[in-house]
Amino acid sequence: MKFRILAAMLVAASSMLLSGQAAAKVCELSIEGTDQMTFSKKAMTVTSDCTKVKVKLTHVGKLPKAAMGHNWVLTTKENMQAVVSAGLKAGLNAGYLPKNDDRVIAHTKLLGGGESDTVTFSLKGLSADEEYKFFCSFPGHSAVMQGAFKIKPAGKKS
Length: 158
Ligand code: CO
Description:
The strands form two sheets. The chain has a five-stranded mixed sheet with strand order 2-8-7-4-5, with no helix packed on it. It has a three-stranded mixed sheet with strand order 1-3-6, with no helix packed on it. The chain has three helices and eight strands. By secondary structure, it is an alpha/beta fold. The chain is elongated. The structure holds cobalt (II) ion (CO). Cobalt (II) ion binds at residues 33, 69-70, 136, 138, 141, 145.
């Protein structure tokens, strides 16, 4: 009898685990960078119930990384300028990003024309009340290659 109860509990626990996995929501976004030093999007939005966010950056131009490199970097709006400055100091070989910097929430590799890269990250620790920015940290690019990254509370309309 005791064994049966234990077995039933195990079945219940494993089905809970399975339903937990089924509830995972991967939100995919894509954006392009061009030889004209532009991003194809001015804003990107996800909902707060995304368990993971996947951003694919494609450099649709032809110019090499050293001349027209693009990456996709996510920080709070507050930290953006400081990360851009730190990236400038880090230099081309570091992909114009400081290493192991907590202010960088997510980033792709620095790309040249024809290349693409995808970054996957969790929204854990991020808040719908905070303002975030995505930008390219290549020197001079963030002035125009930037936009708002918005986390919309799940279930809320518009
Ligand atoms: Co760029």
